[in-house]
Amino acid sequence: MQTTFFDMKKIVCIFFVFLFVATVNGAEPSERNIHIQLKSSLSFPLGQLTHFTQLTSPFLDTFVESKGENIGGINPAKQVSFRLKSFGLCFSPLLISENGSPYKKSLSFYFGTLNFSPAFKKLKTPFFTKPTYNLAGISIPKPEHLSLSTGNFSGDFGLELSLPFVDLVYASTKNAKNGSYNHALFGSFQVKNVTAIESSIYTSLYFGASHGGTEYFQTTGKTVYGTSFVYTDKNIGAQTDFALSLNEQKKMGSSIAFRFQNFYKHAHIQLGLSYTSKAFSGWQSEVSDTQFCFFVIPQFSFAHTNIQFFYTLEKDNKNIRQYTHATAGKCEIKTNHLKTACALQYAKKMFSLNTSMSIYAPNTNWFKECRLEYASTFLSKKVNPYGIKQYSVACSTTFLPLKQLSITSQCKISQKNKEAERIIDGKKQPVIEWQALEYSGELECSYLHKGAYSSSTFSLAIKGFNKKPYYDISLGFSTKF
Predict the structure, then answer these.
(1) DSSP string across 301-335
(2) The pairing of beta strand 60-69 with beta strand 166-174
(3) How far out from the chain centre does Cα 180 lie?
(4) CA dist., res. 144 & res. 159, Å (int)
(5) Cβ neighbours of residue 133 closer than 8 Å, sequence gap 6 or more
(6) Which backbone phi and psi does 121 adopt, to 5 degrees?
(7) What does the alpha-carbon distance between residue 432 and residue 421 come to, in Å, rounded to a whole number?
(8) How many Å apart are CA 335 and CA 343, to the nearest integer?
């Protein structure tokens, strides 16, 4: 059924009336337990309207996001349509407090698209098979192992029970490949020793299985079992992980990993070693391409300078005797007025260079930041006659003409080349050709309004491109009660 009610004038009027009503008598939010957040945006020439609403309280967290297409009937060939983009609900009927501390969730039910903590992800994938030089260090996992994603909606269900020393988690997620459901149980036990040198011990046991078919408990035979041990104190941290999987043919696979790091102020190092057998299949039937991995990340910091190096050695499951190396170096210099960073990485016979510089003026009220960025990828001229595969240059500047008003301008230029086939002397031959230069610019104005009951932000962004749709104008609004 076609929708003729929404024309362009009515859409714009409704949008601004909504902004006005939502912010009349608005005020700065005080410290309270219940918060409401609203976000809306309307963009042209595509006619896209998105709206996001979120409610946060100790007992209930929920959000919903909807998206409208062809608002105003801009494209006569398409109909006006609305769809649910994301939805999430977390209900916590039981809260606990330890030694007078603020109440935290003890029993929680989740519905939506689940996100898992790093500890829980050990069920899903093998351990750090693709490390990078900015790899997060060892730390005691946070109490909450589940959260909800605002990106989409998949109908997952989760249950989490958090007690002072024990965490129990159950999750049921839908497999996008075959439509079956994956079920997992995760349990952890945490002890903190109160001694002269504070230390923490974290032990977890987990189990995951994939279920499908007409009967709810009919299993496909894909299960994973594992255990994890983490120890930290003021100076060092160590972590050991071990997992076993069983596939449909009752074939067993294994995955084991060890990590170590120290916490010294000026000299810090991380190193790790992992091995994953070919038969190992994680929860949700995820298989690792890497069989063996070793990495080491030393880091040194003094005064305003931070220097970090990275090296990894990997072997995949396809090539029995072939190892791949990757190395990188990064240097950062940060002062009150300037921050520069330069990173060079070598992997898969390619060099990647990323540089950035940010200029600040802490004693100036009207200027916030000016940032320059450059990124490029280099290859051997034997592979690419140009010696460079792609590059990009970007610049952004933020001004504050008023305390509540922010103006940001951005521009970016990028170009890349790729292999193509051309007929030369009557034969098809591969050649390297540069693609068309891409450039874009953006100007965004943002105004912040505070009052007794809410804090609201209005924004206007104008973008220009050298490809379709060539421009984009978007109006945005968000408020927190």
Answers:
(1) EETTEEEEEEEEEEEESS-SS--EEEEEEEEEEE-
(2) unpaired
(3) 26
(4) 11
(5) 297, 308, 309, 310, 328, 330, 343, 345
(6) -70, -15
(7) 9
(8) 18
d(CA 323, CA 270): 21
Supply 203's token pair.
């032990």
What's the mean pLDDT when you consider all of the chain? 81
Contact predicate 207/185, CB 8 Å:
yes
**Do residues 347 and 130 lie in contact, with contact meaning Cβ atoms separated by under 8 Å?**
no
User: 122-126, 147-151, 232-236, 237-241: lowest mean pLDDT where?
Assistant: 122-126
At 337, list the tokens: 């007025």
What pLDDT digit, counting tens, does each position of 372-383 carry?
A: 999 999 988 888
Q: Would you place residue 25 in the very low, low, confident or very high pLDDT band (cuts 50, 70, 90)?
A: very low
- Alpha-carbon Rg of the chain, whole angstroms? 27
What pLDDT, on a 0 to 100 scale, did the predictor assign at position 2? 38
Distance (Å, whole) CA 148 – CA 86: 10
462 pLDDT tier (thresholds 50, 70, 90) = very high
Distance CA 143, CA 136 (A): 18
Q: Quote the distance between the C-alpha of residue 39 and its chain's center.
A: 20
- What pTM did the predictor assign? 0.77
For residue 139, which of 227, 228, 244 has the smallest C-alpha distance? 228
Closest listed residue to residue 123, CA positions, set 241, 264, 269, 34? 241
Angstrom distance (rounded) from CA 359 to CA 335: 10
Look at residue 213 and give its three-state secondary structure: coil
Contact 442, 396 (CB under 8 A): no
Contact 13, 443 (CB under 8 A): no
Distance CA 168, CA 156 (A): 17
Amino acid at 458: F
**Whole-number Å distance between alpha carbons of 356 and 383:** 28
